[in-house]
Amino acid sequence: MVEHVEHLDVVIVGAGLSGIGAAWHLRDAFPGKSYALLESRQAMGGTWDLFRYPGVRSDSDMHTLGYRFRPWLDAKAIADGPSILSYIRATAEEAGIDKHIRYGHKVTAASWSTEDALWTVEAVTETGDVKRFTCGFLLCCSGYYRYDRGFTPEFPGAEDFAGTIVHPQKWPEDLDHTGKNVVVIGSGATAVTLVPAMAADAAHVTMVQRSPTYIVALPSKDAIANRLRSVLGPRRAYGVTRWKNALMQIVTYQLSRRRPDVVRRLLRKLTIKALPPGFDVDTHFNPVYNPWDQRLCVVPDGDLFRVLARGEASIVTDKITRFDATGVQLESGTHLDADVIVTATGLDLQVFGGATLTVDGEPVEVSKALTYKGMMLADVPNFAFTIGYTNASWTLKADLVSEFVVRVMKHMTATGKRIAVPVNDDPTLERRPLLDFAAGYVQRALHRLPQAGSRKPWQMGMSYVHDVVALRHGPLDDGAMRFTDPVAARSSVGATEAG
């Protein structure tokens, strides 16, 4: 059943880390504008409410994963999932954003009308009703992966396994691994989090990886940040620490790209130091790719290395041939007994939460669309989306996206224009993949993502410093962004058709 249409100035899709941040920026800049956050689930928090596996935590420090406008005050910089969720909820509640969230509203379609300068957004509720909203600006903060399922490859014999198979994205509340043999399949951030967390209660945990990942131990507490807080006060100390850590991320990334052998040798030395003498570091912690071709995995206080050193967990680098009734058979001939198998095998990427876009009756082919500054689509008016950095904390980029959208909206208000749309007039512009990142979950989905261009402003920025300059202070009138109104837009279309 379709109910009446509700009009709002802005619709934000998603009430996770990005959506709550976007709502804060909107509310701060435009206290009088009406808005709503359409959230498909029954809780805010996005990733930090969805994932419930043991030990779930950030793999970025909270001084950069936290919001620019709200200091992170906990002593631990590498925080656990519940602490991050509390931070998001507190941000929403203190700003009154929680009152604007419509839970159980899954956005399935959005159509733009140039004549009306409005989006019509359709959302399906959990009861199957279809609700419609119109808005002047649509901001998609739904992340870039499917919430209803993760990625799990087909494992022959999985149906024969007598124990429990679980994906971290769908962790059962009643799963008890105490005293059991656990096999964790994967080598990414989730796997290296699960192994030490489960080793505390399991009989033994074995991490099976097809190929190694770069893993670096960092202190869970930022001693400099905690000291600065006592000297400068929370807000100023947070700003200084945020820039300190952002710059450290940039330096590490740039050094990895320019001098990969140097970084590789350094990481190898640190790993050897963290493990017992004779540990086969070159087999299990020496990837074939260069540092930051994929994201570095952070282990707070070296927890993964500690459980490996104590023998509570082990790591196997091999290929799985099949599951059987009692565990996992490997290509080398080794059999791993298991009561519980965890498939920490990654995400299944999805654009705009699966919603379809239409502009003046024409479907938008997202996989062929060109991105503007990594946050808008060419020829799609009054629409922006949030995709964070792959080489730094997500929220560093999410904050900048929200700030840029606010700048665009302020310019529209000041000039009396109702439409903002990026337009590419350069036929020589070459198309590139949106994300230059070798991680498997990205490579599997590149054909579904929009595309980037070979030149600015059509590139996906991955440098926080450059983006601060371009998005926070750069000119809006850059030759690609067009500000107009419905009459002018119709005239332009008519002139094009006549020509």
From TrEMBL:
<comment type="similarity">
    <text>Belongs to the FAD-binding monooxygenase family.</text>
</comment>
<dbReference type="InterPro" id="IPR020946">
    <property type="entry name" value="Flavin_mOase-like"/>
</dbReference>
<dbReference type="GO" id="GO:0004499">
    <property type="term" value="F:N,N-dimethylaniline monooxygenase activity"/>
</dbReference>
<keyword id="KW-0285">Flavoprotein</keyword>
<keyword id="KW-0274">FAD</keyword>
<dbReference type="InterPro" id="IPR036188">
    <property type="entry name" value="FAD/NAD-bd_sf"/>
</dbReference>
<dbReference type="GO" id="GO:0050661">
    <property type="term" value="F:NADP binding"/>
</dbReference>
<keyword id="KW-0503">Monooxygenase</keyword>
<protein>
    <submittedName>
        <fullName>Cation diffusion facilitator CzcD-associated flavoprotein CzcO</fullName>
    </submittedName>
</protein>
<dbReference type="Pfam" id="PF13450">
    <property type="entry name" value="NAD_binding_8"/>
</dbReference>
<dbReference type="Pfam" id="PF00743">
    <property type="entry name" value="FMO-like"/>
</dbReference>
<keyword id="KW-0560">Oxidoreductase</keyword>
<dbReference type="GO" id="GO:0050660">
    <property type="term" value="F:flavin adenine dinucleotide binding"/>
</dbReference>
<dbReference type="InterPro" id="IPR051820">
    <property type="entry name" value="FAD-binding_MO"/>
</dbReference>
<keyword id="KW-0521">NADP</keyword>
